[in-house]
Amino acid sequence: MASPVIDIEQLRFRYSGSASDCLHIERMQVAAGERIFLHGPSGSGKSTLLGLLGGVLTPSCGTISLLGHELTQMRATARDRLRADCVGFIFQQFNLIPYLSLLDNVLLPCRFSALRRGQACISGHHLEAEAGRLLDHLDIAPELHKRAASRLSVGQQQRVAAARALIGRPGIVIADEPTSALDADRQFAFLELLQKECSASETTLLFVSHDHRLAADFDRTIELATLNLAPTNGGAS
Amino acid sequence: MRYLFSMAWHSAWNRRFTLGLTLLSIALSVTLLLGVERIRHDARQAFAQSVSGTDLVIGARTSPVQLMLYSVFHIGEATNNIHWQAYQEIAANPTVAWSIPISLGDSHRGFPVLGTHAGYFEHFHYGNRQSLTFETGKPFDGVFDTVIGSEVAASLGYHPGDHIVLTHGAGGLTGQDHNDKPFVVTGILAPTGTPVDRTVHVSLEAIEAIHLDWQGGARMPGFEIPAEYVRKFDLTPKSVTAILIGLKSRAGVFRMQRLVNDYADEPLLAVLPGVALDQLWQVVGAAEHAFLAVSAMVVVVGLCGLVAVILASLNERRRELAIIRSVGARPADIFVLLTAEGVFITLSGILLGIALLYGISAAMAPLIQGHFGIAITPRPVSLDELWLIAAIIGVSLLASLVPGYGAYRMSLADGLTPRI
User: Fold this and answer.
1) Residue numbers in A near B16 (CB within 8 A)
2) What ipTM is given for this predicted complex?
3) What is the pLDDT of residues A176-223, one digit of tens each?
4) What CATH number is given for A33-58+82-227 in this structure?
5) Do the Cβ atoms of B81 and B211 come closer than 8 Å?
6) Where are the domains of chain B?
7) Interchain CB distance below 8 Å, A99 and B10
């Protein structure tokens, strides 16, 4: 098996000023191309894990590596660059910058990462054409592309956010409750689109949700509540 | 980096109404500050140019500032006069090229009356060695002829040929008019932007003539000399208030000054106008510094408003900043983004302020010239003003760092998931 995309070992994290650990994970591995459903009810240390994977938090001890890069050995700016290059994020809601057009929102990662800029153009596409292609795949009508992001429905916004997370083949897409603001039938439609696009671009997907109904189509489910050995006190969301 | 600036611009444009008001307040404060600086400069210019080419101003012994005030600006009164004998001796000194005797004390409807001789129109210079020119008419010739300054003519609506009556003293008391001896306007001087514009000029003989039947500052009861008889009297002045002299060679100015200051028969004072004007400006200067300080404070208030508006918006923008971080922005990028927004607004504010300054000064120039006698001429930004603008830019850069730093701290604390 190729080296894991996400590899966490002996990880402990404690917020400064806090008496006990908020997160304690002995081992967690995700292989390339895997689609993982990470079940995490609130208070299970979900946001903390995302912060650690995004490189905006640093573990108190232990190691965490993304695509073979050991985050604990890197400086903050290098972690920021790795996040720009290798990780696409989709959040629960309000994913878009209201004063930028849809295309500019989708292209945002390419502004911060030369790597993703290069990979977006790899198939001979122009940057904007690639963004347009992704938006088309995610069912966003072309006449909306130049529109301001604030004019969209929530469902449209989430699909634009997915396009942004996928542009330039980042290697990992981390989706944090991306469907919780959608109504039930829309949730599955979104999930299907997201899975399809991740497969198409051979991107590893880490899908975080508290909703077990969505877990069916994933390769594997990880229960954060059992993975996290830290005493859960509900304090850290 | 360039993309951050473009984002900052889009973000500012998105909130253009709130930020527009802030921008306007900065623009107005900049207009005020530069306007005050400009008026200050023009006032000082007008002040420094009120007399030129005169080597010494001579009066009875008093303070140099006092002497300048009454002899050049016609403000206040002389403590004493100079005897005609002394004037003649000074004027006859071989180093003296020309002399202008000045006799003050009367007024016409609030405008000072100045008695002198015809040499005044030839030798008196103002500004950059400019001599007086006539708008219409000619210098006085007869005893009851008068030449008036442009402002006197404009505000009282006088034309050559009009008759005017002088008043004894500054015109505060009634019944002190020299109404038995009216004057006729023979000439009107072109505007100079100096106290000359506000002055009624008559001959020394005229001053003598209207006071023939006066004594001790009041009309002698039961004694009247009608205007048509004054020529029968000796109209040689007995004294003058001050003397302006020009020397044949400037090199002799200190020798001449010492000569006058050591004059044995009466206590006299000779001052170099440049030096005395400088001293006088230091007195007036305190006020102008206060004005400048107040306007500078207004600029600071405007910038504080900007910082407050951007800081207040930060909380609503936590989500947005977290997203920008999630796509790979460093905290330093967030810092640049927010700082750039402040810089955009202050720079646009400063530019708008300068534009407003030119617009307003073009529109207001005639009004200011009319009311305060200060000529506001449109001109490119001066070196002093450039320094001032540079200082404003410097302070506003510093001010813009505040929201930048706030956002930096916030994005470090929030990471990818803002706590709202």
Assistant:
1) none
2) 0.88
3) 888 888 888 888 888 888 888 888 888 899 998 888 888 888 888 888
4) 3.40.50.300
5) no
6) 2-47+284-414, 56-271
7) yes
